[in-house]
């Protein structure tokens, strides 16, 4: 019986390099509200340390004291709703693509009976917009469980979204793998007891990923092998269900060898 039963994907930065689309949508919303704010890539990279769009705006107002901040917070729900609508429009224009290897791995998982889920801080509307734009109805049908930040008490780096996915899948953490792109996501997955494969995105490159199961430049494809950056997968060049299963089973063997009398020695 395979050790690997489910893959749990993060959304933004992991399925697709969507953070730049989010940044453009935020700036377009700020312009519509005549705030005069503009988040450049460097600033947005810092703001991404705060999970959630509303939370990010609140943090920006508190930390940077921009003009019109108080008035913007009074209309925060309207501002964020507009941003979400603008994001969906940009995604519909096919401004985002799935990252290397993602579609292939999703199709392979479905063919081999490995269950699929999404655990993300972003909204259900944003997830559905991306899946429809990149995979059409097949995208919505591929994922058995989708848990978003507004469905749980605390957003990443808290483990809540991952714990809720495990609850809905009715699977132990040891039989799942997470695919993430950020340090916040890794922290959330680790706190939920799930091993995480990290593929750093444009906005998370340079972050540290202590305790990651594997760190790879991307998932790889036959003619675009990944660059191994740490952890499992050093001898492989493409993430497949077979390679992931082998990594998990090898890791389980090591854990058993390093466990004495029921107590882990590491």
UniProtKB/TrEMBL annotation:
The keyword Hydrolase applies. The keyword Zinc does not apply. It holds the Pfam family Hydrolase. Keywords: Hydrolase. GO terms for molecular function: hydrolase activity. SUPFAM superfamilies: HAD-like (SSF56784). NCBIfam families: HAD-SF-IA-v3. This is HAD-IA family hydrolase. It comes from Methylobrevis albus.
């Amino acid at each position: 019986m395979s050790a690997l039963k489910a893959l749990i994907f993060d959304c933004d930065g992991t399925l697709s390099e969507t953070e730049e689309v989010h940044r453009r949508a935020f700036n377009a919303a700020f312009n519509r509200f005549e705030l005069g704010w503009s988040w450049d890539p460097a600033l947005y990279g810092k703001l991404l340390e705060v999970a959630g769009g509303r939370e990010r705006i609140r943090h920006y107002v508190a930390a940077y004291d921009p003009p019109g901040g108080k008035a913007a917070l009074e209309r925060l729900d309207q501002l964020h709703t507009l941003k979400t609508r603008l994001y969906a429009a940009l995604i519909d224009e096919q401004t985002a693509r799935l990252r290397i290897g993602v579609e292939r791995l999703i199709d392979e998982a479905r063919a081999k009976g490995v269950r699929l889920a999404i655990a993300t801080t972003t909204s259900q509307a944003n997830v559905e917009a991306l899946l429809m734009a990149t995979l059409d109805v097949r995208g919505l049908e591929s994922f058995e469980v989708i848990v978003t930040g507004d469905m749980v008490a605390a957003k990443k780096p808290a483990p809540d979204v991952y714990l809720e996915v495990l609850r809905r899948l009715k699977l132990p953490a040891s039989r799942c793998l997470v695919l993430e792109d950020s340090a916040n996501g890794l922290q959330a997955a680790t706190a939920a007891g799930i091993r995480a494969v990290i593929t750093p995105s444009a906005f998370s490159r340079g972050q540290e990923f202590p305790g990651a199961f594997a760190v790879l430049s991307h998932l790889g494809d036959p003619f675009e092998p990944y660059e191994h950056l740490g952890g499992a997968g050093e001898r492989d060049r493409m993430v497949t269900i077979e390679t992931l299963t082998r990594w998990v089973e090898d890791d389980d063997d090591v854990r058993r060898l390093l466990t004495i009398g029921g107590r882990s020695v590491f």
